[in-house]
Design goal:
The protein is built from nine helices and six strands; from the N terminus they run βαααααβαβααβαββ. The chain is α/β, with parallel strands linked by helices. The protein folds into two domains: 134 residues, HAD superfamily/HAD-like (Rossmann fold); 82 residues, Putative phosphatase, domain 2 (DNA polymerase, domain 1, Orthogonal Bundle), CATH 1.10.150. The protein has a six-stranded parallel beta sheet. Strand 2, helix 6 and strand 3 form a beta-alpha-beta unit. Helix 1 packs across helix 4 and helix 3 packs across helix 4. 32% of the residues are buried. Pfam families: HAD_2 (PF13419). This is YjjG family noncanonical pyrimidine nucleotidase.
Length: 229
């Protein structure tokens, strides 16, 4: 059922449009080879990916800073597979990872198609908790930056989704009312609840999840936004 009176759409970036896990894996493969680290990449990622998600949760909750996130997720993953890496090398890998991450730019299926469909009818925006220096590169290098009129990241606001301040800041920059806006993202807590808590409509993107409230709109492919917009 089409949602009426929407003029502005706010997208999350990582795990919603930009295929973070795929691009991250390619980045690790590159930097491990550059630094002569012989490691089973698949095994490393099986530990790193859930560890990384937990660190991002701590970061959203203001319990750790950016530096702790960048070092801790790598250190914990290496520890989990009993692979010894010196602290100075972990710091270098952390820097190399950020440097090369946006050089890989796989997008989720139908990203271009849905942005082309939505762009003539709506004003499109980004709200992201990602680091500003990386997110700009992701948007530019994946050739989707021109679709978005505004990009709000947590570092420019000083808080992270689901904090109401970042949503209100994005609305102010976009010069739009909350009841004319909708948020689309993969994180139920940060994107969906964050938006709903300020009165903004929201759509959850990801595998259909029975744990969500029955009233929450869900899609498992971006092209299915046509059902609502």
């Amino acid at each position: 059922m089409k949602i009426k009176n929407i003029t502005d759409i706010f997208f999350d970036l990582d795990h919603t449009l930009w295929d973070f896990d795929k691009n991250s894996a390619l980045t690790f493969d590159k930097i491990f080879k550059q630094n002569n680290i012989e490691i089973n990449l698949k095994e490393f990622l099986s530990y790193y990916e859930p560890i990384n998600l937990n660190y991002w949760k701590l970061y959203r909750e203001e319990r750790i800073n950016k530096e702790s996130l960048r070092f801790g997720r790598l250190n914990d993953a290496f520890t989990a597979i009993n692979f010894t890496v010196e602290k100075h090398l972990i710091n270098k890998l952390s820097e190399d990872y950020i440097m090369h991450l946006s050089s890989f730019n796989h997008l989720f299926e139908n990203t271009f198609e849905i942005l082309e469909y939505l762009n003539p009818m709506y004003n499109l925006h980004i709200i992201t908790n990602g680091f500003s220096e990386v997110q700009h590169g992701k948007l530019t290098n994946s050739n989707i930056d021109h679709y978005f009129e505004t990009v709000t990241n947590s570092e420019m606001v000083g808080v992270k989704k689901p904090n109401p301040k970042i949503f209100n800041h994005a609305l102010k920059v976009a010069n739009v009312n909350v009841d004319q806006s909708i948020m689309i993202g993969d994180n139920y807590e940060a994107d969906v609840l964050g938006a709903l808590n300020i009165g903004m409509d929201a759509i959850f993107f990801g595998t259909y999840n029975d744990k969500l409230e029955a009233t929450v709109k869900q899609i498992d492919n971006l092209i299915h936004l046509k059902k609502y917009l």
